[in-house]
What does this fold into?
Amino acid sequence: MHTMATAHTATPAAAIIARGPQTARPVPAADIAAPTAGSVRSYTKDEEIFSEGDRAAYLYKVVSGVVRTSKLLSDGRRQIDAFHLAGDIFGIETGDEYRFSAEAVGDAVVIAYRRCSLETLAATDTQFAQQFVRGMMRSLERAQEHMLLLGRKTALEKIATFLIDLAERASGDDGAVDLPMSRADIADHLGLTIETVSRSLTQLERDAVIKLPSTRHIVLSDKAALRRLNA
It folds into this structure.
C-alpha cells in the first residue's frame, strides 16, 4: 500500500518559471495562474500527493515533472490510470473522495486549487476558466484513448502508442523520448508485465524501429512504422 505524503515544499511561482521543468516540456507563463489562485507545491520522487479515498478538496495542475495516478485493484495489482505532464490537470472528481492515488514520478511541482474556489475563479478569470476546460477535455480524450489501448491493442501496439504519445507530449517532437518512469510503471499503465515491456522494446530495436542508447532514452528511428502500429 502507498504511504501518505508527510511534507511538501512551497515555491514562489516566479522561481518555477525561471527554473523550468526537469522532465517535461516547458509551460508558458500564461499557463500558470496567479499565485493567489492556488498554492505551489513541490514533491520528490515517489512522494504521494493524495491517496485513494482522501477527501477531494483540491485539484492540481502540473508545472514541471511527471505525476502518475493509480488505483490498487482487489487482487493487489496496480493499474496506472495516467501520467500527467506539465500543463495537465488531475484530481478532478465529481464526488467527495479521490478515486485514485497520485504520486510524483520524480521531482515535480504542481499548483493546488481548492475545489470550493473554482466557481469564483472561473467567474473572475476567463483565462483560467478556458485553461481548465481545455485541461478537462484533454484528460477525457486521453482516458478514452487509454481505454481503447487496454482493450484492443497488442503488446507491440501498446508500446508504439505509448512512445509516440509521450514523445509528442513531453517535448513537442516525436523524434526521441526520455522516459521519466520505470519499466514497472509502463507495464502497470499498459496492462502488461515488465518482461513483456522489455521484450517489446527489444523487438522494436531489433527491427530498427527504435534505438535504445540507454535504459531511459529512446530514439524513434522509424516513426512511420510506429505510427502504423499505432493506427
In short: The helical segments are 13-19, 118-124, 126-152, 155-171, 183-190, 194-206, 223-230.
